[in-house]
Amino acid sequence: MAASAHLSRFVDFGRKIICVGRNYSEHAIELGNAIPERPLLFLKPTSSYVEEGSPIKIPFGCSSLHHEIELGVVIKSKCFGIKPEDVMNHVGGFCLALDMTARDFQDEAKKKGHPWTLAKGFDTSCPISSFIPREKIMDPQNIELWCSVNGVARQRGSTKDMIFDVPTLLSYISTYFTLEPGDVVLTGTPSGVGPVNVGDVIEGGITNDLTMKFMVEK
Ligand SMILES: O=C(O)/C=C/C(=O)CC(=O)C(=O)O
Ligand SMILES: [Mg+2]
């Protein structure tokens, strides 16, 4: 099946987008957070997906929209309570994603002890690349991720530096959520997150391989 057909499958299935936060110590530190002892999870609705060719929209009232480049893991088969050594059998492939974050909304929510739903789950908060078949990424812990804004480098990191690796994350998540075909797990962002404004062009990629480009609009 063509890669694009796989993409429409996982988007059309419209299951869950499970996100991991603070999974790179340099990023946890840059925002003044402690290193987590267990994976920190939150969800985005599938209405947050946006594909290349459509813009990222700044949510109403947001004055600090941040980019976060992340490796996404696409689930191919239903599983629950899976051990780390078995969980990769349920992975169909990967994708690149931006966990767009209304940082001002998030800061306010953090102060009040409120959930991050508005900060992380608004429409267009999950720009996503085309599907990357599993065979193209033999080792998900050896991927270089980068992100630039208007051609200026902002983020560059290696998935080697994840605090919790992909099998550990998926196994942990599957202890609490049934993972289903089409679910996407965003594995956290390396350091270098920062603001974007109307008219900016965000590009992201995996070294020497897939790239994606999104324009920011009001
Ligand atoms: O706690 C914060 O201030 C911010 C945390 C995040 O936005 C977490 C992530 O989404 C991430 O690390 O990728
Ligand atoms: Mg993130």
UniProtKB/TrEMBL annotation:
Family from the record: Belongs to the FAH family.
Domain Fumarylacetoacetase-like C-terminal: 16-207
CC annotations in GO: mitochondrion
GO BP terms in the entry: carboxylic acid metabolic process
Protein's name in the database: Oxaloacetate tautomerase FAHD1, mitochondrial
Residue ranges the record marks as coiled coil: none
Reaction(s) catalysed by this chain's protein: 3-fumarylpyruvate + H2O = fumarate + pyruvate + H(+); acetylpyruvate + H2O = acetate + pyruvate + H(+); oxaloacetate + H(+) = pyruvate + CO2; oxaloacetate = enol-oxaloacetate
Catalytic activity, EC: 3.7.1.5, 4.1.1.112, 5.3.2.2
UniProt cross-references to PANTHER family, sorted A to Z: ACYLPYRUVASE (PTHR11820), ACYLPYRUVASE FAHD1, MITOCHONDRIAL (PTHR11820:SF7)
GO molecular function (one): oxaloacetate decarboxylase activity
Source organism superkingdom: Eukaryota
Keywords, sorted A to Z: Metal-binding
UniProt cross-references to Gene3D superfamilies, sorted A to Z: Fumarylacetoacetase-like, C-terminal domain
Signal peptide feature range: none
